[in-house]
Design brief:
By secondary structure, the protein is mostly helical. The chain has helices spanning about 10-35, 35-40, 55-70, 85-95, 95-120, 130-145, 150-165, 170-185, 190-200, 205-220, 220-225, 230-235, 245-255, 260-270, 275-280, 295-320, 330-345, 360-380, and strands at about 50, 285, 290.
Length: about 375
Amino acid sequence: MRTSRHSRSPRHIYVVSIFASALILFASLQYTSIFYETLISGDMHEMPGFARIAIPDTFLYLELFKNFIQSDSIFVASNVKNSKGPISLWYLANGNWYVIAAINSFLVFLSMVYVFRIIQHFEIKLSKLSLTFVYIGITPIFVYYSIGALKEIPSLLGLLGFFYHYLKNQRVGWIFFALVLIFFRYQLIFPITAFVIIDKIFRNPLKISIVCLLIIASLYPFISMLNIFGNNATEIFRTDQAYSIGAVVEEVRNRIPFLSALAVLLRVFQSIFEPILTLIQNQTFYERDGFSIYLCYNFFQNLVLSPYWLLTIIGIIRAFFSRKQSNRDMDRIYAFLAWYIITVGGFSFISHRYLFPISGLILIGGLLEIHRKRSVRLQLRVGVKPN
């Protein structure tokens, strides 16, 4: 790839990231102030006229933090899976809603720095207009996930940090972020380990990864008995939805070998576009007679990032079927995205929230495909055969 005239200097990266994250911090503190009484009451539906003012998990993690503080041991074993990371954040914030919003905004700042660094690594040209549009579209969901201690923003930073340091072959860095990811969501040990092993052994990690994932999806009814992907969560989620489309897809995925691969791919599609599909089905942002902040914010970020999701998927498919091996690092990002998207989006119940942490790399994946198409068009104009 040619060096872009639009590539950002390290100083410019920090300035833009500080400014953008500062706006998110300001909005998060304002949001916390407006809903403060409801937040400290622990009821996400208590505010008249509104519903889901925060993710319910954060109230659970705060309660666990308080219990652990009383027992003088923050790391006491809990029956709640993946709770130690959010509890640790509540510990750092001393249970303060304003402090936790500031901590999350700082993590957003670091995430933005890594996004720009990865973009710089790939020498991608950035359109200020497109970047501004994306920022405006995703800021509300960043503010929403900054309310309370959750796994989403730390996992976003973890994935970006892991992949950047892996690209740079900085072992200490990528191992550190891999451990952070596993600390917040232990199930990620599987896609991370699989990606690293395949990338170290094979010249084309993408094609091998896709083949492995298709085999796993085809044999999922047998593999699911090992409970690697947390099927108990799916069963709980589907208790009152036995005859929904999602439940039918899960039935095929869990019981019919080989056909389960199609069910997994359908589940991935549903997970990626869940906010848009939900609005099409219900045609409202209201829940429990109140305006659902979660449904609204999630829909707009999904709408803004949908083109990048589609471009990333196109890029993965194109690179998989291409006879010529493309840029090694492009194959790496597509392989890692495939492992995360299919294992997280295809092997659990439908929840776009689970895919939020990969949104930074999805944005980069889409930009890579845009950059590639521009390069091809430019080569055709000057009469050079595209690579």
